[in-house]
């Protein structure tokens, strides 16, 4: 038989099946892990409960097909069926879930970025066109009000473009481990000092210095973004606390805490997604682009650290970083 050597597929990582006259006669370890060890000796229509996959396997010409949900909901697979003899099929399965997820994420990103830019751009065009009319353009108070709105929307677009470029730069070098010496205690105090108006920002530390290997500009961006978020979404005029703790286990814990109304728990898993907002109207009113926490997450991961957000409704939110301290 043409499938006599099929057992050579036992140790490959790609799920592979031998099907003879509609019955599964062999499944390697990867296929058993995917579909269950019980599939051997079963009718293929029972072993693979996917009509599209079964149709390809039973087709006298074999072929390929893309199928959804073979392993778990949302998974995407390609089935490749080769006819190797009369009634004999060699079936291999390729997991395309990561590629499909990446493609969806890219498409969503482009769509969201386009939407976020289109909204302020439409406002700018609308108000400019109105100003070009004799009635609106000739009234000083109306003209000044419209120009102020145009400036606000233009600044919104500028902030979004800057964040998009920043995210692109971070992703381009995400595999390059930064190596400059950075004293995070000094850096945190410097960045906190930039916020002179509004909520008071205080910095506390259990050490004189906290040295890490990193990219100074990116780590300043992380602290700046998190303090800015705490001021925007915390209690109006309320305090923002930045605390640093060097641990005996070789990690630096940084926490930025506000005393705002907090975030509903269902939003927490998605806060670092691009353009995700727990409160869309409030975020846009505050000037948020929806990219700040995504930028923070990417920078922290580049520095081999961890990022987390905890919150209590009515009590506030804490954004926490864990970064490896530089070894002497």
Structure description:
The protein has 328 residues and is α+β, with helices and mostly antiparallel strands. The protein folds into three domains: 9-95, PAS domain (Beta-Lactamase); 98-172, Helix Hairpins; 176-328, 2-Layer Sandwich (Heat Shock Protein 90). It has helices at 29-35, 44-47, 51-58, 97-131, 134-137, 140-172, 184-192, 216-233, 280-286, 292-302, and strands at residues 16-20, 23-27, 63-68, 76-85, 88-95, 180-183, 201-205, 211-214, 240-246, 251-257, 306-312, 316-324. A five-stranded antiparallel sheet has the order 2-1-5-4-3. The protein is extended, with a radius of gyration of 28 Å.
Can you tell me the CATH superfamily of the largest domain?
Histidine kinase-like ATPase, C-terminal domain
Give the second-level CATH assignment, the architecture of the largest domain. Answer: 2-Layer Sandwich
Instruction: Assign the structural class, choosing from mainly alpha, mainly beta, alpha/beta, alpha+beta, or little secondary structure.
Output: alpha+beta
| Overall pLDDT score | 86
Q: Briefly note the CATH topology name of the largest domain.
A: Heat Shock Protein 90
Radius of gyration: 28 Å
CATH top level label of the largest domain: Alpha Beta
What topology, given as strand order, has the largest sheet?
A: 2-1-5-4-3
Most strands sheet: 5 strands, antiparallel
Shape: extended
Order of helices and strands: EEHHHEEEHHHEHEEHEEHHEE
Q: How many domains?
A: 3
Helix content: 40-55%
Low-confidence stretches are none
Distance between the termini: 66 Å
